Amino acid sequence: xxxxxQISHNLRRIRKAKGLTLxxxxxxxxxxxxxxxxxxxxxxxxxxxxxxxxxxxxDVSFSSFISNESSPVENLNNATVSAIHSLENWVNDDxxxxxxxxxxxxxxxxxxxxxxxxxYEHKSDPHNIGVIExxxxxxxxxxxxxxxxxxxLGNGQAIRFSGAQTHSYKNIGNGHAVFHDIIYYPQxxx
Length: 190
Hints:
Helices cover 24% and strands 31% of the residues. It is an alpha+beta fold. It has two domains: 3-66, lambda repressor-like DNA-binding domains (434 Repressor (Amino-terminal Domain), Orthogonal Bundle); 91-184, Jelly Rolls (Sandwich), CATH 2.60.120. A five-stranded antiparallel beta sheet has the order 1-2-9-4-7. Strands 3-8-5-6 form a four-stranded antiparallel beta sheet. The protein is globular, with a radius of gyration of 16 Å.
């Protein structure tokens, strides 16, 4: 299933599971009822920032919108092999997102592989309080903006920071920058 279809399906599923109308979902997320309806019908594709806004408003993980429901045992023999050249996981022309492990309440985190095209900067709005991000540069050279400063990462280098602040990821090298992002949610998070 293409990422847009996955988002559409999961938004509708999450909203109905919480017993919410589009109007109530709009109130909680700050996203218009019309836009939510368009996303659910697959007519509109939300930006990453808009999807985070919806996730925060509904108090769910980001990966709950872009992942398939899966079995409790997952075989990830190729987890270290980047699938960055697969077109279906590119959110836009500059940002690649692949869910390695979707959010699971029993462990409280989700794991992503992200790719940034050369010179691309992705800005992220603050997440809910208590969310901690762990960024590990897998290849390329990148910088992470948090706590008011840029932190440069090369292959194998990592940083941990509070996701409850505006933060950015920027490719500052040649070619793609690929990194893993482990996002921890506090125990009261769904």
